[in-house]
Design goal:
This protein is an all-alpha fold. The protein contains 15 helices and 2 strands.
Length: 361
């Protein structure tokens, strides 16, 4: 909005061309989103505390959670989304279809998460919307976003799957791209949701993955850099870096309040929205496999739940003391801060590996 307004006068005032630089607008999106969350965070938390919008704690979880975390406000994802959308609408090019695709997915998944959080708060338990209904709604949202992708994004590369570490290994998925797209979006959303179980645990990996894809989208949208790195050039996708910057800024601002001990939890409102947006960013930049690498911590958390469920149904035995896997280590006696920081380190290592794939081809 502000970007489109300022650049409309760039012919009259040449200094306004400064805002045409993606790096500048990405930086401004980071700062704007972060400052917005900082400014409204305390009042937001105070209001939610007064209104008893607090997080229902799993009774089968680690016992100290019932003592330390009970009464902590939830739905902090609203904070993230307010900061995120402010940064995006101020500094992104609103004529770019990628921004509207990402906005639709983020807003829709955030709304679904907010309704889920509302049901948990109202019923005073951790169940919320049934998993089947939630999964169905996620698929419907993803299908609607796919229609937006096919109708408004003009790219011959949409159905292609590119493999890192290889120069020319590309597979055109054809119609199989549809279930693949749904798998990436829905899977990413739920993986981040499962990771969001400890103070700050999901927030830092989200920042790292968004940082990686701010760079990836920038070079993918630049014909010179993309040719040098031997990655697909996608016209207009560089604008996604501004969206990634807004995710980073909003998440950093939220981390200020979410760092151990958390003053507020992001809830499904934030985790579903952020996960869905990262999945969509991976798809539009054609780096879905790199997303699985940089977001490997989210993948690990999701796999731990899947393995636990399958093992219990087939054998009646659990592989982990509790799933997702971060609770397993808590059950083993690791302090929460130890689990969080070690998982952050793992996420940082995976992010660096993901970025390295851009050069190792």
């Amino acid at each position: 909005m502000l970007y489109n307004f300022l650049t409309s006068y760039s012919e009259t005032y040449s200094f306004l061309n400064f805002f045409n630089f993606l790096t500048v607008r990405t930086g401004l999106a980071v700062i704007t989103s972060m400052v917005i969350v900082f400014l409204i965070g305390d009042k937001f938390i105070k209001y939610f505390s007064i209104k008893k919008i607090t997080n229902p704690i799993r009774v089968d979880g680690p016992k100290d959670h019932l003592i330390k975390k009970i009464g902590t406000p939830t739905m902090g994802g609203l904070l993230i989304l307010i900061g995120l959308f402010t940064g995006v609408f101020l500094w992104s090019d609103l004529n770019n279809p990628y921004n509207w695709l990402l906005f639709f997915i983020t807003f829709s998944f955030g709304t679904l998460g907010a309704f889920d959080d509302y049901k948990k708060i109202k019923s005073k338990n951790s169940h919320g919307i049934s998993s089947k209904i939630k999964f169905l709604i996620q698929i419907i949202i993803s299908l609607l976003s796919l229609i937006i992708l096919y109708n408004y994004v003009d790219s011959d590369l949409t159905n292609n799957l590119y493999f890192p570490f290889f120069k020319n290994l590309v597979i055109n998925l054809g119609w199989f791209f549809i279930p693949f797209y749904l798998f990436v979006i829905v899977g990413s959303s739920n993986a981040v949701n499962l990771t969001d179980g400890l103070d700050g645990l999901a927030t830092v990996p989200v920042i790292l993955v968004a940082g990686c894809f701010a760079f990836i989208s920038y070079v993918s949208g630049n014909i010179i850099f993309s040719e040098y790195l031997l990655i697909p050039y996608i016209e207009g996708v560089g604008e996604v870096s501004v969206f990634c910057g807004a995710i980073i800024g909003a998440s950093i601002g939220f981390l200020w309040f979410n760092a151990p001990p958390a003053k507020i939890f992001m809830g499904d409102t934030g985790s579903l929205a952020l996960g869905g947006s990262l999945g969509a960013i991976g798809v539009v930049t054609k780096h879905e496999i790199v997303l699985a690498i940089t977001g490997g911590l989210f993948v690990l958390e999701a796999i731990s739940v899947i393995v636990q469920v399958i093992s219990f149904k087939l054998t009646g035995k659990r592989i982990f003391m509790m799933a997702p896997i971060h609770h397993h280590f808590e059950k083993k006696g690791w302090p929460e801060s130890t689990v969080v920081i070690r998982f952050w380190i793992i996420s940082l290592i995976l992010a660096m590996i993901g970025l390295a794939t851009l050069k190792l081809r």
